[in-house]
Specification:
With about 180 residues, the chain is an all-alpha fold. It is built from six helices and no strands. Helices cover about 75% and strands about 0% of the residues. α1 runs antiparallel to α4, α2 runs antiparallel to α5 and α3 packs antiparallel against α4. The two termini are about 20 Å apart.
């Protein structure tokens, strides 16, 4: 059965083993929204005063490129956004600002925790798309994943890795929960 607005998009039926690209796009768009907002919150608190501001602006620009790409593919394929989009918008900003208020190392620990989960998530998606079912989406994910790995590694340089273990564990758990929710609603 084809989508009413876009006949090239096939709906998934129970038992369908193909990757659910609509859910992938929905969750990735939600995640990129949250990431862009995390960096906006960090920059609002740290501003241009801190030595890491330039690096954070670079990461923010990459996340905005990812978000723009996900918004575009979402529109082209008529994929509905998660109903929790407004929550991710606010929560991302609060997480970025809150960790930046704790200091630059905490802000970078947040980035490291988030990007660790996103690397895992994008890795699972790229494996699922290795069947060649959606080369456009796979190429986007592979491209974005390389940026996310770069962000994680840059953050780890500033924190020494694992600087705030409890906070990072909570952030990672929150990211995993957000991914699970955005896939479905």
């Amino acid at each position: 059965m084809a989508d009413a607005q876009n006949p090239a998009i096939k709906r998934r039926l129970p038992g369908d083993r193909r990757p659910d690209t609509r859910a992938m796009i929905r969750v990735n768009q939600a995640g990129e929204t949250g990431a862009a907002r995390i960096y906006a919150g960090q920059l609002a608190v740290m501003g241009g005063r801190h030595a890491m501001a330039g690096e954070i602006r670079h990461m923010a620009a990459q996340e905005q490129r990812h978000l723009d790409g996900m918004n575009a593919i979402m529109a082209r394929r008529s994929v509905r956004p998660t109903i929790f989009g407004p929550l991710w918008h606010v929560a991302g900003y609060a997480l970025g600002a809150g960790t930046a208020l704790l200091g630059p190392k905490a802000a970078m620990a947040c980035t490291e925790a988030v990007e660790t989960v996103i690397d895992e998530h994008y890795g699972e998606q790229t494996e699922a798309l290795a069947d060649g079912s959606d080369p456009e989406l796979k190429a986007m994910i592979d491209d974005y994943r390389s940026d996310e790995i770069e962000h994680r590694e840059a953050a780890a340089v500033h924190t020494g890795g694992g600087a705030f273990p409890i906070m990072e564990a909570v952030i990672r758990a929150g990211c995993r929960a957000a991914i699970a929710v955005a896939k479905r609603v």
